[in-house]
Structures are given as C-alpha cells and as structure tokens.
Amino acid sequence: MAARGQKNAQRSRAEVERARLYAARTAWHDGQIRRRTRDNLIAGIVGGLLVVGAVTSQSVHAAVFAPEPEPTETSTPAPIENPFSGLFSPTTAE
C-alpha cells in the first residue's frame, strides 16, 4: 500500500510542477504581448513625430530661403508661317 501512495505523491508533484511551468509560460507570453504593444505604440508616435518634423522643417526652409525671382529679358518670337497655307486655299466652285 505504501507504494501506491508514493506513486500518487510523485504524480501529484509532477502535476503541480507542470501547472507551475504552464502558469509561468502563460505569464511570460502575456508580458511579451504587452511589451510588443507598448513598443509598437512608441514606434508609431516617434515615427509620426519624425514625419511631422521633416514636413515642418521643409516648409520653414522653403519659406525662409525661397529664391527671389529675377526678371529676365525675353524676346517675342517671330510669327511662324504656316507651310500649308497655299495648299488648302479655298477655290471657287465651278
């Protein structure tokens, strides 16, 4: 009879150990999910701030250092003669 009780005690200890390991793995996994969520949120905020900073920087730079247009002298082009003007002249109907 003592042997039977000893097997049950060993089995019980193994079940307790298995349950403890399972709870530890579950807690670790839940912690990993929370960490990933937190890291993704932080990365999104930092990325958004970088984009806003880049757009603001470019806008300020374009407004402050915009080149002033200088007037340039242009010539009026000579009118181009139509090469087809003599080919399709209206004729009188006979």
Question: How does this structure look, described?
Answer:
The chain is mostly helical and 94 residues long. The chain has a domain at 1-61. The chain is 67% helix and 0% strand. The chain is built from 1 helix and no strands. It has one helix at residues 2-64. The chain is elongated.
Looking at this protein, list some descriptive labels.
94 residues, mainly alpha
Helices and strands in order, then pairings?
Layout: H1 2-64
Main sheet makeup = none
**How many H/I helices?**
1
SSE sequence, one letter per element: H
Percentage of residues in strands:
under 5%
Q: Rounded to an integer, what's the Rg over CA atoms?
A: 42 Å
Low-confidence spans: pLDDT under 50, at least 5 residues?
Answer: none
Structural class based on helices, strands and sheet pairing? mainly alpha
Distance between the terminal alpha carbons, to the nearest Å?
Answer: 135 Å
**What is the typical, i.e. mean, pLDDT?**
87
- Overall geometry: elongated
> What percent of residues adopt helix (DSSP H or I)?
55-70%
Q: Based on DSSP secondary structure assignment, what is the total number of beta strands?
A: 0
What is the compact description of this entry?
The chain has a domain at 1-61.
